[in-house]
Inverse folding.
């Protein structure tokens, strides 16, 4: 006979668990976007992959510009670490994919990317909102980045961890799991009341939605082969 659990027992024990469980369905939606599925199957052109890297650059430039102003914040500051920075890697990847660094200056963001980047910049005065976007991007990168990087490097003939796929390689975080565990511990220790925790979760859910919109626009601009 199954054991009956009380509502309190059914709830996640920590904020980081609640955050993960509440946002997981959106994670699946983002990963299931047609463009990403086709990318993982090797059916997106090199130009389409380059377009994805381009959109990443605009998003991470926004995120890391806000991070620079959050370093001394008592709540958001502990989450800001140089080991996570992706902009230099993205610029190196694009310089390789485009045949030179000069071409980066002429790149344009998709409308969905502009909306995402604008939303990130709006959190410059809201530590909890910034952490929501920081969590969504970087913990996702650390969790699935190596696998994605391996597939992408094979598809486009790139050296794993080298130019073109540096974004997926965190050379300053050799052991992602302890890093992620410590990150989640900081989430649990953040001094947010229940209302603020709900706001943070809502912002994470919004971030997933904004990210999925980018994949939709990329898929329209770069249809999959086959």
């Amino acid at each position: 006979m199954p054991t009956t659990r009380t509502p309190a027992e059914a709830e996640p024990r920590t904020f980081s668990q609640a955050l993960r469980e509440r946002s997981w369905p959106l994670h699946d939606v983002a990963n299931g976007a047609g463009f990403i599925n086709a990318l993982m199957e090797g059916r997106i052109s090199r130009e389409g992959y380059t377009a994805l890297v381009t959109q990443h650059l605009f998003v991470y430039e926004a995120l890391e510009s806000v991070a620079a102003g959050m370093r001394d914040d008592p709540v958001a500051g502990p989450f800001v670490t140089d080991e996570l920075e992706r902009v230099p890697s993205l610029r190196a990847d694009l310089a390789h994919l485009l045949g030179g660094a000069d071409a980066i200056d002429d790149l344009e963001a998709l409308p969905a990317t502009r909306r995402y980047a604008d939303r990130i910049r709006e959190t410059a005065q809201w530590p909890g909102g910034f952490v929501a976007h920081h969590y969504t991007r970087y913990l996702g990168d650390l969790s699935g980045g190596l696998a994605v990087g391996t597939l992408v490097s094979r598809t486009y003939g790139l050296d794993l961890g080298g130019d073109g796929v540096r974004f997926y390689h965190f050379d300053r975080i050799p052991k992602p799991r302890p890093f992620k565990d410590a990150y989640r511990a900081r989430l649990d220790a953040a001094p947010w009341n229940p209302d603020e925790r709900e706001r943070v979760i809502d912002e994470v859910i919004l971030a997933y939605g904004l990210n999925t919109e980018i994949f939709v626009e990329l898929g329209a601009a770069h249809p999959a082969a086959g």
In short: Confidence is low (pLDDT under 50) at residues 1-9.
